[in-house]
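Researcher: Re-running this chain for the archive, since the previous output was lost when a drive failed. Same request as before.
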Amino acid sequence: MSELVTKVADAVGIEADVASKAIGFMLAFLRKEGDDAAVEKMIAAIPGAAELADGASGGGGGILGALLGGGIMGLGQKLMSLGLGMGEITALAKQTMAVARQYAGDETVDAVIASVPGLSQFV
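Model: Regenerated structure tokens:
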């Protein structure tokens, strides 16, 4: 289990396997929607993050995700499908970005957040 998953699971109060999937969804979303260079720099800096993102890329979001066309709403639907509520999703996003800042630095993480419309309200 990566330090990222452990820290986020403990801080949010969720099971490690749920945290692992949720972080993977979030990182895969950032790869798809964010600034390529900043996202890849951030993911490369966090031990275990690339594997989480790679494991979550692809897979659906179901009918609702298709109707919403992905984006932040599609990510929210995927996270809710894991049994997470809005408070847990917000805490997950904040904790993931806090750990990312430790490894990748404020400048890189701020560039990632700024490159995804609507993300700043969750982190």
